[in-house]
DNA sequence: TCTGGGGTCCTAGGACCC
DNA sequence: TCTGGGGTCCTAGGACCC
């Protein structure tokens, strides 16, 4: 039988914040989204106090003050670096692994010959904690979907000790399915939860026993795969070779609503620069670009508008100058005055490797490269992002995001390295 | 006052072809 | 008056994930 493990970091962002700020270990912690908008991670204590996932900050201010909850702006430089450390430990421990997200990793344990898989998982857990400082939970199942489900129960149950193996205890599978609400199944989101519950399907067990034809009709092949995985048939294999991205994007909600064209222009140019850096970093080029701007959907009564436009490159590129010029043309074409713009984004589409496919037989000419982009990238790699820029936008503006409680980049910036003093 | 960002996959429908 | 069948490609939108 196939044996998948899912290793999931507990309250990952909150755990990262606590790593270098021991004072936070005695307080409930929440981490906020960009712009300090809403809650995206909570320590166990914060969960117990009733802070909901995704709760907007302005709705929990009272709770924060009452219980002295520590509030952190999100610090992705820190989380990304800690994630790499965790993945390194996990990757070195198992025959093969798939990094699924910043805080999750699937392991393929088929070929692992150990007397007790549960003991092995406990050791892995302990090793990860000692070597990285991050607590993790491990779920083991015959499919990825069941490994996810096992992981969730491993986290919830005190007696599981952070590990639950359903492969070597097949009798537990039915009980696990019965106690899992259908909405907590991997692949069943909000809309499908409502639809399923309306039809009397409340648990993973009931979902697993729904008729194939019905599931196929209501939820397509995606839903059917989930049902089969719950029954123990593998539909999602371990993907240990990460596939190259097809699109990449830089989008932000502005720090405030903006009416002025020049301000939106600056935001859009800044995102163009950033997204171009991203594709160059991945060694890719883009075939097309898309720009969108939109008003605030939460502003009731205000006129709503969402505009977008796209352009195809004559020859795939990763050059900030070509990308920003194309974005600027789109921007001038779609811009409408008189709205309170709140968010914008630049997407690069049809990504590929340079020289992959010539646009036509007559278009084999290599992109002229004057070395400017790589020079800028090298300067920024050494001295920090944004050191060298193209002067496409003003440095500051209303559109810049708020991050009022940002922790230092303890592990990725020399000046932020924590120091310890012996007294 | 104040509600994130970055992805993937699938499907339906239209344009177009023979 | 009469108006097929089958295929591909593209795009927009909707579902999901973290």
From TrEMBL:
For this chain, one GO molecular function annotation is:
DNA-directed DNA polymerase activity
Gene Ontology cellular-component annotations: cytosol
- Gene Ontology BP terms: DNA repair; error-prone translesion synthesis; SOS response
SUPFAM superfamilies xref list: DNA/RNA polymerases, Lesion bypass DNA polymerase (Y-family), little finger domain
Q: In what residue span(s) does the UmuC domain sit?
A: 4-189
Which EC number applies? Answer: 2.7.7.7
**Protein function:** Poorly processive, error-prone DNA polymerase involved in untargeted mutagenesis. Copies undamaged DNA at stalled replication forks, which arise in vivo from mismatched or misaligned primer ends. These misaligned primers can be extended by PolIV. Exhibits no 3'-5' exonuclease (proofreading) activity. May be involved in translesional synthesis, in conjunction with the beta clamp from PolIII.
Q: Self-association or partners: how does it assemble? A: Monomer.
Q: What is this protein called?
A: DNA-directed DNA polymerase
**Taxonomic classification:** Bacteria, Pseudomonadati, Pseudomonadota, Alphaproteobacteria, Sphingomonadales
């Amino acid at each position: 039988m196939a044996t998948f493990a899912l290793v999931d970091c507990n309250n990952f962002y909150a755990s990262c914040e606590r790593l270098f700020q021991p004072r936070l270990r005695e307080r409930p912690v929440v981490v906020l989204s960009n712009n300090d908008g809403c809650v995206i991670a909570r320590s166990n204590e914060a969960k117990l106090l009733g802070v909901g996932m995704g709760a907007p900050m302005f709705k929990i201010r009272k709770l924060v003050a009452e219980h002295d909850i520590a509030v952190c702006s999100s610090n992705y430089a820190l989380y990304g670096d800690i994630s790499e450390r965790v993945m390194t430990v996990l990757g070195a421990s198992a025959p093969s692994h798939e990094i699924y997200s910043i805080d999750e990793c699937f392991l393929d344990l088929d070929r692992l010959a150990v007397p007790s898989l549960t003991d092995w998982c406990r050791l892995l857990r302990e090793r990860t904690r000692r070597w990285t400082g991050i607590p993790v939970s491990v779920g083991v199942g015959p499919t990825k979907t069941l490994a996810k489900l096992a992981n969730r129960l491993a986290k919830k149950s005190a007696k599981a000790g952070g590990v639950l193996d359903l492969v070597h205890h097949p009798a537990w599978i039915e009980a696990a399915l019965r106690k899992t609400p259908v909405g907590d199944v991997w692949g069943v989101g909000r809309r499908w939860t409502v639809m399923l519950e309306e039809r009397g399907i409340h648990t993973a067990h009931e979902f697993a026993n729904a008729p194939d034809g019905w599931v196929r009709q209501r939820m397509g092949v995606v839903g059917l795969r989930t049902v089969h995985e719950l029954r123990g048939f593998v539909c999602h294999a371990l993907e240990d070779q990460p596939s190259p991205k097809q699109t990449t994007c830089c989008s932000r909600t502005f720090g405030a609503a903006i009416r002025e064209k020049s301000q939106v222009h600056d935001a859009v140019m800044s995102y163009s620069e950033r997204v171009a850096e991203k594709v160059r970093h991945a060694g890719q080029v883009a075939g097309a670009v898309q720009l969108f701007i939109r008003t605030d959907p939460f502003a009731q009564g205000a006129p709503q508008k969402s505009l977008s436009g796209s352009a195809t490159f004559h020859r795939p590129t990763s050059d900030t100058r070509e990308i920003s010029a194309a974005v600027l043309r789109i921007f001038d074409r779609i811009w409408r005055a008189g709205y309170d713009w709140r968010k914008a984004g630049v997407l690069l589409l049809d990504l590929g490797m340079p020289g992959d496919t010539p646009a036509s037989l007559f278009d084999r000419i290599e992109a002229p490269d004057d070395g400017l982009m790589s020079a800028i990238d090298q300067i920024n790699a050494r001295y920090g992002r944004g050191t060298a820029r193209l002067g496409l936008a003003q440095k500051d503006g209303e559109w810049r995001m708020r991050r009022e409680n940002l922790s230092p980049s303890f592990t990725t910036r020399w000046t932020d390295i924590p120091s310890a003093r012996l007294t």
